[in-house]
Amino acid sequence: MGQTWLALAESSANKPGYAAYARQKAAMFTRMARETEERIRAAGYDELLVNDANLVDWVTRRRAVEDEEFEKLVYEVED
């Protein structure tokens, strides 16, 4: 999104107000992307930041592991 807003700023060079607004939005989206990446890394999910990462596949795998762990706990309680 940041790149899109930068392109809009460049195409609005003859309209200073539009260009300023677009640069502000570009900075905002760039900052949000950086902060999101930092939080994902801090949470230990670096594997989600690779170019070909698929969030749906990651959640599906993670859920399968958690389901298995949950079932083990349930069976331990029943014994």
UniProtKB/TrEMBL annotation:
This is Uncharacterized protein. The lineage of its organism: Eukaryota, Fungi, Dikarya, Basidiomycota, Agaricomycotina.
